[in-house]
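yo, MtN3 and saliva related transmembrane protein is done. seq:
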Amino acid sequence: MAVSPVAATVGTIAALLSITSFAPQILKIWREKDASAVSLRTYVVTVAGFSCWIAYGIMINAWPVIASNIACLLMSGAVLAMKWRFERRG
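structure:
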């Protein structure tokens, strides 16, 4: 099924916003070397959710779903990794 140009544009904007939404959190944690305000449970669920979206994208062969969720998985995974790293130090 073909996607209209308007739908493709909206999807692209949504993907870019979702991906970049993690950047401020990552920068804050990295600068402060403190992730105590981050909810571990929330990011575990978030990472699991993006993993499921990637699996779904593979099942329906939708590369935009796969690519955008891989990027989101990497960003949310970075937050989760820093949460574990900085908690062990403290």
